[in-house]
Amino acid sequence: MDTTPPVVGIIKAPKPLQSDPVVTIQFGDSGAEGDIRAYYCRWLGPQPSDPPPDTPATGNGSVPYVECNNKTATMPVTDGHWLFQVKVRGAGGRGVG
């Protein structure tokens, strides 16, 4: 049984510094295995500096992941630092942590 989690890749992202009030990010299978069954996304921000990528998904101060299976995430953004994160679930439930 394969226990290696599937890998997701960012296909299209905005420039690090931009002025558009709406941001769209496209993501998908890295092409290595093609066994992604579900995507889970979240946006962290706005913050005065880079949001911590280890922000918990549950509990105090958490920002949960939500299902985002259309392989595109769009978010109205304001001034500040933002971080987009995506996790995947592959065949047999591998990958979501």
Q: What does the secondary structure layout of this molecule look like, with pairings?
A:
Blueprint lengths: L7 E5 L9 E8 L6 E12 L18 E2 L4 E5 L4 E10 L7
Antiparallel strand pairs: 1-2, 2-5, 3-4, 3-6
Architecture in CATH? Sandwich
Mean pLDDT score: 86
Low-confidence blocks of residues: none
Output the helix-strand order.
Answer: EEEEEE
Strand order of the largest sheet: 1-2-5
Mass-distribution shape? globular
Q: What is the number of independent domains?
A: 1
**Gyration radius over CA:** 14 Å
Number of beta strands: 6
Q: Please indicate the percent range of residues in DSSP E strands (runs of 2 or more).
A: 35-45%
**CATH top level class name:** Mainly Beta
Percent of residues in helices: under 10%
Based on secondary structure, the structural category is mainly beta
Note down, in words, how this protein is organized.
0% of the residues lie in helices and 43% in strands. It is built from no helices and 6 strands. The radius of gyration is 14 Å and the shape is globular. The mean pLDDT is 86. The chain has a 3-stranded antiparallel beta sheet with strand order 1-2-5, with no helix packed on it. It has a 3-stranded antiparallel beta sheet with strand order 4-3-6, with no helix packed on it. The chain has strands at 8-12, 22-29, 36-47, 66-67, 72-76, 81-90. It has 97 residues and is mainly beta. The protein has one domain (8-90): Immunoglobulin-like (Sandwich), CATH 2.60.40.
